[in-house]
Design brief:
The protein is α+β, with helices and mostly antiparallel strands.
Length: 99
Amino acid sequence: MAKRLVLATFCVAVIGAAVAAFAPGVTSCSSTSGEPERCTEVSTFEHDGAWVLVVVSFPVLLTALPLFMRHRITATASAVVLMTMAAARDERLLEPEPG
């Protein structure tokens, strides 16, 4: 049961990383003189480059640790780090933008 849960968590992390990196989500607008502004949606990978793969790989690597290191403390530690990352992300979303 626990092994299946860890594997399911890893699969969800891989899918989430792929969606975060490759799904359209960044609006890029450009205009040239005499023409109306043209906006397109691009993926984070297209907009920011390959370094995005490094960023989205952290949750995948954290969820993969318990698959290879079969200690309860490894699963617990990776869960705590993932929850801390999620909480830090939520805090930044709640802060007002400067200016």
